[in-house]
């Protein structure tokens, strides 16, 4: 029952995340990505893939933290410190939840995304998000989350469409956390 529930959650999470990548309202994007990351984390916890759950939980928390950094005190140093903190917390979490060699995959994804967020460059951010999904897809294979893998492939396709749309619309300011 936990496996079936986890697969339903990952499908819903991925659909919400995919839709969030296409919205232009920052507030809607924020709430959709927090909800998506929370469902994604729950999916991992139900599968016993705790490092994946920790990384997804950190994603949800990072979205909230970056919202307040952007709203109150958006300095380059604050963003870089927050990104570094999430990487360190993820590495500490990995030490306690290490399952097998493939446990490194969500950590690599976390490092890629947080490094790109610290750089505040839209092109690098978009490329990093799509690249990090490849590591998530590989992790899904090892934890046997086949619906998760399929939905992440869908998210990757939507992400690529989003990059193309941004290029066509000449978008210069990222709204993804």
Describe this structure in words.
There is one protein chain. With 177 residues, the chain is an all-alpha fold. It has 7 helices and no strands. The protein has helices at 2-20, 26-47, 50-72, 76-97, 104-119, 122-142, 146-169. Helix 3 (50-72) packs antiparallel against helix 4 (76-97). The relative contact order is 0.14. The model has no long low-confidence stretch (mean pLDDT 87).
Looking at this protein, list some descriptive labels:
0% strand, 177 residues, 7 helices
Mean pLDDT: 87
Helix-strand string: HHHHHHH
Spans of at least 5 consecutive residues whose pLDDT stays below 50 are: none
Radius of gyration: 15 Å
Helix content: over 70%
Number of helices: 7
Categorize the overall geometry.
globular
Q: How many strand units?
A: 0
The portion of residues forming beta strands comes to: under 5%
Largest sheet: none
* Class by alpha and beta content: mainly alpha
**Span from first to last CA?**
33 Å
């Amino acid at each position: 029952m936990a496996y079936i529930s986890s697969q339903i959650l990952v499908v819903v999470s991925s659909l919400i995340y995919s839709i969030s990548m296409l919205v232009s309202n920052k507030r809607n994007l924020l709430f959709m990505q927090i909800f998506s990351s929370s469902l994604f984390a729950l999916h991992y916890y139900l599968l016993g893939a705790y490092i994946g759950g920790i990384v997804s939980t950190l994603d949800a928390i990072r979205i909230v933290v970056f919202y307040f950094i952007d709203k109150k005190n958006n300095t380059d140093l604050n963003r870089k410190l927050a990104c570094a903190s999430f990487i360190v917390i993820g590495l500490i979490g990995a030490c306690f939840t290490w399952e097998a060699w493939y446990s490194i995959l969500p950590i690599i994804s976390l490092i890629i995304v947080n490094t790109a967020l610290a750089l505040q460059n839209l092109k690098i951010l978009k490329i990093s998000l799509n690249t990090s999904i490849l590591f998530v897809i590989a992790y899904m294979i090892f934890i046997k989350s086949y619906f998760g893998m399929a939905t992440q492939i869908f998210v990757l396709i939507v992400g690529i469409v989003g990059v193309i749309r941004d290029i066509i619309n000449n978008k210069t300011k990222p709204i993804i956390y």
